[in-house]
Amino acid sequence: MSKLKLHLPVILAGLVVGIASVVLVALGNPVNMGFCIACFLRDIAGGVGMHRAPIVQYIRPEIIGLILGAMIMALAGKEFKVRGGSSPMTRFVLGFCVMVGALMFLGCPLRMVIRLGGGDGNAILGLIGFIIGIFVGTLFLKAGFSLKKSQPQPAVEGLLMPAVNVGLLILVCAAPAFIFFSTEGPGSMRAPIAAALIAGLVVGAIAQRSRLCMAGGIRDAMMLKDFHLLMGFVAIFVAVLVGNLIVGSMGLKGGFNPGFAGQAVAHTDGLWNLLGMVLVGLGSVLLGGCPLRQLILSGSGNSDSSVAVLGMVVGAAFCHNFGLASSTDGPSFAGKVAVIIGLVLVCAIGAGNTKKA
Amino acid sequence: MSSPSPSKEQIATFHTHFGALSFHKRLRALGDQAVMMPVPRKLSASCGTCVKFFLPFDPAWADEDLDSVYAVQGQDFQLLFQNEEA
Lengths: 357, 86
What we know:
The structure holds two protein chains of two kinds. By secondary structure, chain A is mainly alpha-helical. Chain A has helices spanning about 1-25, 35-45, 60-75, 90-105, 110-115, 120-145, 155-175, 195-210, 215-225, 230-250, 270-285, 290-300, 305-320, 335-350; strands at about 85, 150.
């Protein structure tokens, strides 16, 4: 009973994330993309004109909600601790590389689980790659990898990321002429701003409380034989699967469509789906958490995570400015080269920051 | 060494995973049955790693990666030591 009580918050968090994801799709988000941290950061990069891919430009309120929800919950729990200064440039590059891998696969680890729950078989290859990447990451951790400890920082350092997101919220609501809004493609598919923001706020708050992390669950299971966080991961899958079966039976947008070909915002190149997520898994372990977790920490006063998020945003802009991101037709040659360079770079960062314990 | 009693159970939290790894190794070398585990939610919002150990804590073990040390009292934790930061 006490064990159930211990695990209940993370299981409930996973269920809420899964349900919110299905609801956001029914309300207008792209199929199997109720939430995707990588895709949504990429959309925001396009929304503010950092890249000009016309089909993926929109300031996603979900991201804003996640950060502000985490901040509100951290403040309420007296857990808003402003820290930073732990290898910021390294974290920026790791965030950049994680985005390169995610846009090869076309999704962050959270979307990978959501795609699995929608029946997208290509995400199975992504999951295998993600597990391999995390395994390699744990080898670096066991060998003594460290980005060095963070230091306490002035409050303004921790408040800037939430403040930036308040600014983004004003921009998406006011919709001035210099902001980009996709009129076709995934960027044009969006739930109403209020619904997206509320979903983000709720998920951000519960993810802060429960410490939900896609990479952390598998890492802890591998390294510490602890399955607590993994339960949240499984709960998301179950909620999305059941939710999709329900909305499918109701004839709403979404549903469970098993198979590999013709999946929404996905391609069928198994090798590169796998390798992209190897890069995401490895980079996430070295960063100390998946892209969702980085967002939550950035809302909780951790400016190291904010730097990692900025690395992801710039990485997304690069991916679309230089043709590195995959499309539904498959990966590009440039994208494959970028993933290989990313894997080499992240391994070099791992080796270069390892010392004997 | 006699088997530790539950009342001696302590948890050390760290700023880095490396800190936990080093502390765990040091305690093991001293003959302690130290184990690495996720930080209990009550102690931190971080999803990092802590070390559960049984030898009486010696402040001389504290390096810059050590955050705090707590005595485990059933479901609760009593702060025994908090490392100073610059």
